[in-house]
Design a protein that fits this description.
Radius of gyration of chain A: 13 Å
Distance between the termini of chain B: 36 Å
Radius of gyration of chain B: 13 Å
Largest sheet of chain A: 6 strands, mixed
Strand content of chain A: over 45%
Oligomer: heterodimer
Largest interface: A-B, 24 and 23 residues
Number of strands of chain B: 11
Order of helices and strands of chain A: EEEEEEEEEEE
Number of strands of chain A: 11
Helix content of chain A: under 10%
Number of helices of chain B: 0
Strand content of chain B: over 45%
Chain lengths: 110, 113
């Protein structure tokens, strides 16, 4: 079967660093994505990893290990506006399908 | 470029009625996806178009669901004989071939009474 696992909820303090983990088991792999989704809004793209290693983009970084089926999203200098759900998604090879995890709801406290 | 747009944003219907949603992708994007999202879940893939061709459809999608993209631009998603279990947010996303990033529209929230 195809499965993506993420923690359901996380809480962190404004200004801190938080790491959101994602593990996946899919039939083939063609890239992993992280999206941010505020309540009642559409997902917005954050990052894309297809090769092992770290991709950095401002306060956000994403890491991928294909051999371990593992990724994380690192958010630095947390701000209140970072309170949202963070979705991990995998594009499986041989299909056009993207499989999303259930999302990690992050609460940033003052 | 105004991004992906969807219409209507909200739809309330009675069980058994048919509903149709429209998606207008970013103008140069040839790839278009439909997803369904329920509360507390991630988006669930429904179907994919490359230009006007529907190249993939989820096996989870019942025969009551149909989607079209007749001219390779806008797309419609129709649900026939709606059921209460169809209540969800229906999201459309588009991308450009060669760029894996999908850009999502604001979604159509459907409530079936």
């Amino acid at each position: 079967g195809q499965n993506i696992d993420q923690p359901t909820e996380m809480t962190a303090t404004e200004g801190a660093i938080v790491q959101i983990n994602c593990t996946y088991q899919t039939s083939g792999f063609n890239g992993l994505f992280w999206y941010q989704q505020h309540a009642g809004e559409a997902p917005t793209f954050l990052s894309y990893n297809v090769l092992d290693g770290l991709e950095e983009k401002g306060r956000f970084s994403s890491f991928l290990s294909r051999s371990k089926g593992y990724s994380y999203l690192l958010l630095k200098e947390l701000q209140m506006k970072d309170s949202a759900s963070y979705l991990c998604a995998v594009n499986t090879s041989g299909t056009y399908k993207y499989i999303f995890g259930t999302g990690t709801r992050l609460k940033v406290l003052a | 470029d105004t991004g992906v747009s969807q219409d209507p944003r909200h739809k309330i219907t009675k069980r058994g009625q048919n509903v149709t949603f429209r998606c207008d992708p970013i103008s140069e994007h040839n790839r278009l996806y439909w997803y369904r999202q329920t509360l507390g879940q991630g988006p669930e893939f429904l179907t994919y178009f490359q230009n006007e061709a529907q190249l993939e459809k989820s096996r989870l999608l019942s025969d009551r669901f149909s989607a079209e993209r007749p001219k390779g631009s806008f797309s419609t998603l129709e649900i026939q004989r709606t059921e209460q279990g169809d209540s969800a947010m229906y999201l459309c996303a588009s991308s450009l071939e060669g760029d894996e990033t999908q850009y999502f529209g604001p979604g159509t929230r459907l409530l079936v009474l």
